Every structure is written in C-alpha cells, then in structure tokens.
Input
Amino acid sequence: MDPWLLLAICALATYLWRGPAVLIAAGVDPKGEFFAWISCVAYAIIAGLVSRMLILPTGALAETTGLERVLGSALALAVYFRLTDRNLFAGVMAGAAALWLIRFLP
Amino acid sequence: MLVAGYVAFGALAAANDIPMGIAVASTAVLWALPAQIVLVEMHSQAAAVLATVVAVMLSSARFLPMTLMLMPELRDAKHRGWMYYLAAQMLSLSGWTMAVARFPAIPRPQRLSWFFGFTLVLMSVSAASTAAGYIGADRLPSLARLALVFMVPMYYLLILSGSVRDRVAAVGLACGAVAGPLAYLLTPDWSLPLSGIAGGTAAYLFLRKR
Output
C-alpha cells in the first residue's frame, strides 16, 4: 500500500480519539473505568513493542546480539537512575553510545 | 526530551527505508510518537493494513481522556468552534502536561492562543528533530546508524521505567512487556493489537483488584 495513503488513514484513526472528545459534553468523567482500561491498553502496546524490539528485533537492530542489547539497556538505566537525576537525554545517549562502543572496539 | 525521541524516530524511519517526507509528515499529522513508531515498524514488516491501523489507533488511545480533560479548560465564548478541533489535533503528551501545569496562572481567554503557540514550537522542534535523525542515519556509517536506531527502545525503556511511580504505567508496562514478544511469536501481524488488549486488560484487572 502507498505509504502516504497509509499515513493518511492512520492520521484519521488517531483523530478519532481527539476530535469526538471535543463534542462529548461535560459530564463524562475522564477518570472513569473505560478510560482507565484504554490507557492501560495504550501503555501495554508501547511496552510490548519496545520489549519485542529488544528481545526479538527485526530490521536494523537484528544485526545486534542479545548481549549487546542487554548491556546497552543496563547502561542506559544506570545513567538514567543512578548517575543522573533521571536525565532522559543522557540515559538514551549512554545506551546508544554503549552499543556503538561494544561493536566498535573489537 | 522530545528531541531524543524524534531524532531516534527519524533514524528508525531511515533505517527502514521509509521516505523522509513520510517520516516528517507523520510527526505533524499523527503527532504521537508511539503511534509513529508502531506505523514505521509494522509498515516495514509489511504487516496487514488493518492490523497496522488498529495498532496505531490503540496506541494513541490516551488522547481521548487527555482531550476530555483539557477542553473545559480551553473553552471561552470568544473562540470559534473549529479552533477546538484544531487544538485537539495539536495535543500531545508534553503539550498536555505543560498546559495542565500552566493553565491556573493563565486567564481563560488567553489559554487557547498560549496553547497554539506552545504546541507549534513543540511541533516544529519535533519535525526538525525527525529530519535531523533521518539525515544523520542516512549519511552516517552503518554502525552509528545502528546506535541511533537503538535510541528508540532506549527512549521508551527509560520513559516507561521512569514513570513507575504511576501505578497504571508500571503494571501496564509489565503486562505489555511480557505480552509483546509472546504475541509476536504467535502472530507477527496482529501482535501489537493483541498484546495491547491482553496486556492492558490484565493490567487493568490487576489495578482494580487492589
């Protein structure tokens, strides 16, 4: 399928959450049960995708070994939680740099 | 914070041979990083179109409660109706977080224009970061490109584990992380909608029981 058409369909699909929310009048509790469930689903999707990318990578990341990905993740987590005060940019950079170094050195 | 995510996304799109125009345009029209990553990953795996659209849609479901919460704060008699629909499209997690924090200090009639100004800056920076990541990954040696692409899972690994204080996030994260690879082994095409609904429902039930 043409990627532009696919992008347009996906944009419409995301707007289905945004647009109708303007119409829905007050009285709908955004903290209700349905919303609790749907945000669990949204979190689970991105968590599922990320863990799949790390455990069963496809595409470019499939070239890396499991050990390399584990070491990169461990360093990213260490920099984010231990070395800095949850500096996201530093943590992400550390993970990427670790992967680069591990593959570059030998 | 946004910069790292969108640079990584740009690199991911380049590594998967998605045209650069698509990558940058997706930042403007989807304006939801998880949805964009889902789209690029599934498109490059040649997943079924319906499965891709369903996964993209479910991954951006948070916009419904977010928009519902923000709209009453934006409303003012002097604005035209269509402006709210435009604001809904421009809403993102970072814009929303900032708006919720700042709105008490901003007079109601000025909130909408503040919101447009702030989100336009966010969108421009993000679109530029997408292009930068794309060009970087395209021009740099393949090893550096690999490191840039690796930023995508690192970005969400840190964001998700950093939000563990939020219990919904923590449990959703754990359930989704287990369900994702399992569902992929079962059905690559439908793994994301499946793991999202299964993992999300498990997380929801777990949270309700406590």
About this structure: The helical segments of chain A are 3-23, 33-55, 66-83, 88-104.
